[in-house]
Design brief:
Blueprint lengths: L4 H8 L3 H8 L7 H14 L5 H8 L4 E6 L5 H4 L3 H14 L3 E6 L4 H14 L4 E5 L5 H10 L3 E4 L10 E2 L3 H14 L7 E3 L5 H16 L9 E3 L2
Parallel strand pairs: 1-2, 1-3, 3-4, 4-5, 6-7
Length: 225
């Protein structure tokens, strides 16, 4: 039989309203009471009704991850699954769920999708692939003070919150390490020179070679697209 909130309250020897408010982070109780409630939840394998919790908290308990999800996409962006898994894991700890917003590949249509998702307030926050972030999206995010993180630096000077790898430094360190091992003929194999990540990595590659008195050679630079 599926456990109810009434069962949890009885097991923890507290009222139903206390259980409800504690589980929705709306009430502070003593550590012993909190532990009794959490122990009862675990023992009974109680799963809160997400819709009911959302009504109490006036939130959707959902955070969206906006990106394009199509066949072969994980091979183009091998970090995608790690981002989704890590985000989902951490959100679950806080009582939230990760939803996927499948974007159109064109920036124009994806821009509309993201703006509609923000303005509809069907989610409490959004993670966005920085590639799809535009000035119009920035304007809406800042105007609504909508919780967000851009996965990857936007392609324009932006006031948005973003997180990314220092691609130039990473490339620099890799080349410096290879030079320290005695290598001098070092190639750069990348994507498209129109891509920001490619340009950042190539900058680190070139600077590292120059600092080690090695000259970049066109024959050693190999775009893959």
């Amino acid at each position: 039989m599926v456990a109810t909130i009434k069962d949890v309250a009885k097991k923890a020897n507290v009222s139903i309203s206390t259980v409800s408010r504690v589980l929705s982070n709306q009430m502070h109780v003593s550590s012993s009471t909190y532990k009794r409630i959490q122990d009862a939840v675990a023992e009974l394998n109680y799963i809160p009704n997400s819709s009911a919790v959302s009504l109490v908290k006036k939130s959707s308990t959902t955070v969206l991850y906006a990106d394009s999800f199509y066949k072969g996409r994980p091979y183009e962006n091998p970090h995608m699954f790690d981002i989704i898994s890590g985000s989902s894991h951490e959100l679950r700890k806080k009582g939230y769920f990760l939803g996927l917003l499948d974007l159109d590949r064109s920036k124009e249509k994806s821009e509309e999708q993201i703006i509609n998702a923000i303005q509809s307030k069907k989610a409490d926050g959004i993670l966005i692939n920085g590639y799809y972030v535009t000035p119009a999206i920035e304007k809406v995010l800042l105007a609504t003070d909508f919780p967000h993180i851009c996965i990857g630096k936007p392609s324009f000077d932006s006031m948005l919150s973003w997180i990314d790898t220092n691609h130039s430094l990473s490339s620099n360190l890799a080349i410096t390490h290879l030079v320290s091992l005695g290598h001098k003929k070092i190639a750069f194999v990348g994507g498209s020179d129109k891509d920001n990540i490619y340009r950042d990595r190539f900058l680190g590659y070139r600077l590292s070679l120059e600092r080690n008195n090695l000259s970049p050679r066109d024959a050693y630079v190999i775009p893959t697209s």
